[in-house]
Structures are given as structure tokens and as C-alpha cells.
């Protein structure tokens, strides 16, 4: 683990996007060369010995984190996209949001039964996106090895949601917000 204080690179914005919410802006972390590099290294080093062959990141900030993590692991990167963005046959997974539903898709040929997958995103809040992404991996026959996030909103209990849906998979987070 690096000696970077990631919390200093995350800005709290009160009453955004609505009154009573404290938004955690991680774009300063992305903009800081040392911070971003250390974050990718730490997220990667934790899973370096797991034999990861593919990293899956959800649209859109999961791409910003997932691609460099995949590069550091010597693995391929698979984008989980919103409907209508991928041109070939896809697996689809619908999941619940606070008000309604959303959907993610991956190409059917992006993963196979021999792949060992790390699911990566910038933030885990309720765990819904992470679980939906893991369901896409399962549809392909590949195996989820773990999850890696920059920021975790622990008060929303995402680890419990992930454990209930995915079993005892490893979840690694750089910064936990209580």
C-alpha cells in the first residue's frame, strides 16, 4: 500500500446533487498524477497473485479505473456498457436503482469459462452495479475473483449486498466513507 493520503485528494461537496447529500468528488484524485498512479498500483497489487485474466469496468468511470488496472495486471479489459452501445451480441443484466432500473451489457465473446475476472469501479455505493456486473460475468461462464474500488460508502452496506449475491468474494477499497 502506498503512502498517499487518498482522502486529501477527494473533495466533499455538501448539498450536491440535492440538499442533505455530501457528494464525494474523486476527480481531483484522477487529476493528480502521483495519486492516480498510486491508486491504480494499490488496487492492482492487492490482486496481483490471483491469476486475473480480465478486468471488467462499468460505464463510465469504471473505464477510467479498469483499463489501467488491467494493463498493470497484464489482463484484458472488458467494458460493461449501457444498452445500445455495443455492436455485437451481448449478455444483458437489469438492476434496481433508487427510482427505477438500469441495465449493463457486455459482448458475448468478451469472456470465456477460463477467465478469472476482477470487477473494478471508482465507487461502490449500494453494490447494485457491482452485483449486476458480476451477473454478466456469470452469464459468460467466467469466474469472478474479486472486486476493487477506489471509494466505498460503507453506510450503504455494499459488502453485504455483494456477499449475498456473489458469495465470499474479496472486496478491496482504497477509501471507506462511514
Description:
The chain is of the alpha/beta class. The protein has one domain (50-177): Rossmann fold (3-Layer(aba) Sandwich). It is 30% helix and 35% strand. It has 5 helices and 9 strands. It has helices spanning 27-31, 33-45, 61-73, 128-140, 158-166, and strands at residues 11-14, 22-25, 54-58, 76-80, 90-97, 100-107, 116-124, 143-153, 170-177. The chain has a 5-stranded parallel β-sheet with strand order 4-3-7-8-9, sandwiched between helices. Strands 1-2 form a two-stranded antiparallel ribbon. Strands 5-6 form a two-stranded antiparallel sheet. Helix 5 (158-166) links the parallel strand 8 (143-153) and strand 9 (170-177). The longest helix is centred in the N-terminal third of the chain and has 13 residues, at 33-45. The protein is globular and about 40 Å long.
